[in-house]
Each structure stands twice: as C-alpha cells, then as structure tokens.
Design brief:
Layout (H helix, E strand, L loop, with lengths): L12 H11 L4 E4 L4 E2 L4 H9 L6 E8 L4 H9 L14 E4 H7 L9 H12 L3 E9 L2 H6 L1 H16 L4 H15 L1
Parallel strand pairs: 3-5
Antiparallel strand pairs: 1-4, 2-5, 3-4
Helix pairs in contact: 7-8
Length: 180
C-alpha cells in the first residue's frame, strides 16, 4: 500500500537498492530486507526522529521471528552502534543527501550494508531508533544458531581485515549450501 511503483534492475542487493534510491522521490530512504518487518507505527516514529536535524541515518533495533537465547542477546546489543552490531537487516534509514554524498551502496555481493554504514559513521552519528524490526531466523535455523553466528562473526572479521567481499560471499553461500 505504501509503494507507488515497482522497478526492475540487474541482480544483486546493492544494485537493486541503488536503483530504488535513484527513482525514489523522498528526502529519506528506507532500505528494508524482504524478510524483515517494520514495527507498528514505524513511519510515524521515523517522521518524529527525522524532524531532528542531528539525525541523518540510523537503524532499528533487531528482533527475530524465532526464540533463542542468542537472538535475545543480539536484540539487546543491536541498540548499540558498531560494525559488529549494526547491519542491513535492521532496516537502514538515511537522508537522501547523505546517501548520495556517500556514493550509495558499493556493488558488492556481501557487506554492502556494512560498508555504507562505515562511511556514514565518518559523517554522522548513527541513530538506533527506539523500536525493533522483526527479521527471519531461517538462515540461523538451517546453519545452526551458534554455528551460523560463529561463521558470520568470522566473515565480518575477515572483511575488516581486508578480505574481498566477493570471496566472502562465496564462503557465506558455501556454508549455507552445506547446511541445507
């Protein structure tokens, strides 16, 4: 009901999000994963948050559609912004002018969200909006909650140490395929 048009683009999440940003008309861009749901009243909340001139970008807190003690831990830490706690599945909200200034998402198959948020942190403080999105835990269920968590953390660490996002995407998918 909130979309007024659909577009097509080449494959790849970064390519698709950048294509959507190019045709969007608003001053604020909302990047929401297909398997993530916004909290009730999200747009009312965002309207109030973005009325503050010091808020240029942020994410919601995280929750999962399944219960596990590790998911509760993730949910708690998602209120704190860091490269280890803030990701695209929390719904990235960013003012258009900042997004354009940053050059959009890099055309990478993995960690495009991390890279954009890293660049945004150099320009502004990321806001943790006081509500939680609900995202799918299906990959954790397939890969094992602890196993998938350790694998994801290892990939983030490799990314931060300079590994190629393309190589890391292969490892990410290989792990997922192994667990199917």
């Amino acid at each position: 009901a909130l979309a007024d048009r659909c577009i097509s683009s080449a494959a790849g999440r970064a390519v698709q999000m950048n294509a959507g940003a190019r045709v969007a008309r608003g001053d604020c861009l909302v990047f929401l994963h297909a398997d993530t749901r916004l909290p009730r009243g999200a747009f009312r909340l965002l309207s109030a948050e973005l009325a503050r001139p010091d808020v240029a970008a942020g994410t919601f807190r995280l929750s999962f559609d399944q219960r596990h003690w590790l998911f509760s831990l993730y949910a708690y830490f998602s209120r704190f912004d860091s490269v280890f706690t803030t990701f695209g599945d929390q719904c990235i909200v960013i003012r258009r002018d900042l997004f354009l200034h940053l050059g959009g998402f890099p055309d990478w198959p993995l960690f495009e969200d991390v890279a954009l948020l890293q660049r945004a942190r150099r320009e502004t403080r990321l806001r943790s909006f006081p509500a939680a999105v609900v995202t799918s835990a299906r990959r954790f269920q397939r890969g094992g909650v602890i196993g998938q968590s350790l694998h994801n953390g290892w990939l983030v660490l490799q990314y931060l140490l300079g590994a190629s996002p393309a190589d890391l995407a292969v490892k990410y998918e290989r792990y997922a395929d192994h667990k199917r």
